[in-house]
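dumping this here so i dont lose it
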């Protein structure tokens, strides 16, 4: 197997204790990982691209290590979503967390009366484009000769792009989402990625036809949200219906949706209290392991971990997962497909 699965007993044990304790249990029982920060600069754009790498320390250049490139939400940083980086790297999957300097933690600093202006500037289309370019540059750096043995060890056939909120929007741009401006198509597809994790994906503001925007997305995707997943910043409001619209608009049948009951938009960040302490802890562990189960299905054709996941976490889902039927894929460039009884979906009838 390309990674060691977390045992069902350990996951179930985590249901009764705070996330900090669960995290400690997970890390102690798994291979160790290292954390390395990079202060890269894209000279072509004169733009810093800081990044943090979670790397399985047991990995060697002779090994083949899957890599996730992660994009944070608005106001985030490379230090965020550490629970994902730690958990994935402890399971043998490297995780590179990219920081986007035009929409990162600096937004919260400075004159508080100008914060609304800073947030709105960060959400502009120009910054969305720069974020997609950040991802491409960071992956280039990770695969370059400068990374030595780590770069050599990365499995080029198992590259995953992931993101939360604004980072999910960045992820969609990276895997084929297109918008037309003044007769020109904005296209930032990076075909090196072969799977995507979309957490709390926001809408494409100003776009009335999301299906057209996402028409070219063809790689397998997993979508994660919660019934109380609401984005609310000045000038922008987005609820779970937007996450569902994004999921529905992707025509590739190789997609999966998980909806947690309750929660919040920021429950998927490193904040430990939002959405409720108990649920917060469970959702974090469930989200981290859901991604790994999805990778098993995409890269190994093995749906066992995904089936186990739905049983383990059924109690916090909006509704018990059920089979999703779909037509056979046409024109998909990937070799493997899974059957409808392997494609599980948490029902959208959560009201």
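and the seq i came up w/
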């Amino acid at each position: 197997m390309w990674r060691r699965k977390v045992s069902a007993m350990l996951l179930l044990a985590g249901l009764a204790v705070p996330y900090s304790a669960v995290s400690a249990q997970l890390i102690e029982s798994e291979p160790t990982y290292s954390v390395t920060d990079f202060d890269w600069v894209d000279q072509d754009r004169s733009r810093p691209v800081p990044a943090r790498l979670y790397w399985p320390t047991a990995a060697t250049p002779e090994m083949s290590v899957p890599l996730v490139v992660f994009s944070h939400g608005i106001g985030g940083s490379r230090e965020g979503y550490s629970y994902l980086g730690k958990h994935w790297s402890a399971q043998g999957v490297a995780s590179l967390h990219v920081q986007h300097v035009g929409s990162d933690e600096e937004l919260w600093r400075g004159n508080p009366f100008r914060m609304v202006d800073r947030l709105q500037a960060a959400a502009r289309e120009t910054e969305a484009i720069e974020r997609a370019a950040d991802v491409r540059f960071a992956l280039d750096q990770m695969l370059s000769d400068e990374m030595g043995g780590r770069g050599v060890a990365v499995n080029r056939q198992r590259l995953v792009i992931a993101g939360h909120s604004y980072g999910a929007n960045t992820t969609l741009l990276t895997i084929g989402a297109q918008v037309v401006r003044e007769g020109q198509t904005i296209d930032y597809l990076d075909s090196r990625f072969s799977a995507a994790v979309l957490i709390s994906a926001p809408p494409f503001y100003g776009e009335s036809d999301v299906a057209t925007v996402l028409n070219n997305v063809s790689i397998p995707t997993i979508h994660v949200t919660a019934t109380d997943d609401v984005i609310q910043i000045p000038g922008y409001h987005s609820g779970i219906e937007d996450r569902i619209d994004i999921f529905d608009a992707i025509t590739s049948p190789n997609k999966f949706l998980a909806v947690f009951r309750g929660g919040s938009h920021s429950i998927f960040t490193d904040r430990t209290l939002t959405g409720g302490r108990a649920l917060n802890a469970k959702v974090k562990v469930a989200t981290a392991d859901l991604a790994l189960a999805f990778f098993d299905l995409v890269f190994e054709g093995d749906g066992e971990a995904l089936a186990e996941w739905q049983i383990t976490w059924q109690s916090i889902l909006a509704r018990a997962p059920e089979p999703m039927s779909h037509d056979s894929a046409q024109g998909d460039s990937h070799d493997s497909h899974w059957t409808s009884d392997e494609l599980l979906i948490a029902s959208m009838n959560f009201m």
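The chain is about 30% helix and 20% strand.
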